[in-house]
């Protein structure tokens, strides 16, 4: 798809970097080609939607909102070079950090990090991302009157890209949790051995590297996931308003069901991202900290006690926070904050809608009264003439 054109270095290459990014590499040139071809259909569909909206005689506020929804979904495509490719070097750094961490982990613990079913999970999520993309877009073609079938070709790759980023986040967060659990297991084995101070110091360095990787993940994908969250917030708010507004005015129909599909889809993606980040942070930080606090200091020597204390200080000084390069922390609080902000904007928009409905009702009453008064006056004039 050309979303992140990084390349794996051949095994025989004389370098410690296993992943690289270059603006003129084969992967990047392929990304240019794919993005350019996709842009043709996206621009055509976007232009037609914009032209239909401008030529439509019905310029109600609700129709403006409705047209904005499907135009906004096209925005991530044009932001891809800025938000994703520009951070290619940071993504390569993150990938190389994982490679070096696994080698270091193997040397210190003597056992590799085992990610269960990683290959099948990756392919499964890839296939599921495209299947979900087709399901969401084709449902809009069925439920929305003006969503033509050929328009759907501009949206498939965008929705699949959003699904892919969510899958990538899920895999990385689970990888952090798996690495943390493996490290904790080896930590307990080391504490049961004699004079474990040196081993504990090595495990402390491993944990700090794991925490730094979590922070690097946020830096590497900060723009992409930041825009991702903003598009979800905007699309969900507008879709909710559009559906509730139409229900108030015309009742429930297929059109509103299509908008509810978009709302459910967007909120599910946001919940997965926030929930997985929360679990990764808890497993690497809080749970690991609790394991150290439960160590019986009376049963170990003084040097090991000092290493345990230094380990706890390292955890406090290097909190494993999933942070988008300082913009916001990704956790469950972000999900609830988004719901709170959506509710606030939705209340404002619905107040605006109710005001329009009341004004429309007043105008209709005036028209009816005018007609009634005119009819009464004509009838009285006819009686007077007779």
UniProtKB/TrEMBL annotation:
<keyword id="KW-1133">Transmembrane helix</keyword>
<keyword id="KW-0807">Transducer</keyword>
<keyword id="KW-0675">Receptor</keyword>
<protein>
    <recommendedName>
        <fullName>Gustatory receptor</fullName>
    </recommendedName>
</protein>
<comment type="similarity">
    <text>Belongs to the insect chemoreceptor superfamily. Gustatory receptor (GR) family.</text>
</comment>
<dbReference type="Pfam" id="PF08395">
    <property type="entry name" value="7tm_7"/>
</dbReference>
<keyword id="KW-0472">Membrane</keyword>
<keyword id="KW-1003">Cell membrane</keyword>
<dbReference type="GO" id="GO:0005886">
    <property type="term" value="C:plasma membrane"/>
</dbReference>
<feature type="transmembrane region" description="Helical">
    <location>
        <begin position="121"/>
        <end position="141"/>
    </location>
</feature>
<dbReference type="GO" id="GO:0007165">
    <property type="term" value="P:signal transduction"/>
</dbReference>
<keyword id="KW-0812">Transmembrane</keyword>
<feature type="transmembrane region" description="Helical">
    <location>
        <begin position="20"/>
        <end position="43"/>
    </location>
</feature>
<dbReference type="GO" id="GO:0050909">
    <property type="term" value="P:sensory perception of taste"/>
</dbReference>
<comment type="function">
    <text>Gustatory receptor which mediates acceptance or avoidance behavior, depending on its substrates.</text>
</comment>
<dbReference type="InterPro" id="IPR013604">
    <property type="entry name" value="7TM_chemorcpt"/>
</dbReference>
<feature type="transmembrane region" description="Helical">
    <location>
        <begin position="64"/>
        <end position="85"/>
    </location>
</feature>
<feature type="transmembrane region" description="Helical">
    <location>
        <begin position="153"/>
        <end position="171"/>
    </location>
</feature>
<feature type="transmembrane region" description="Helical">
    <location>
        <begin position="257"/>
        <end position="278"/>
    </location>
</feature>
<feature type="transmembrane region" description="Helical">
    <location>
        <begin position="225"/>
        <end position="245"/>
    </location>
</feature>
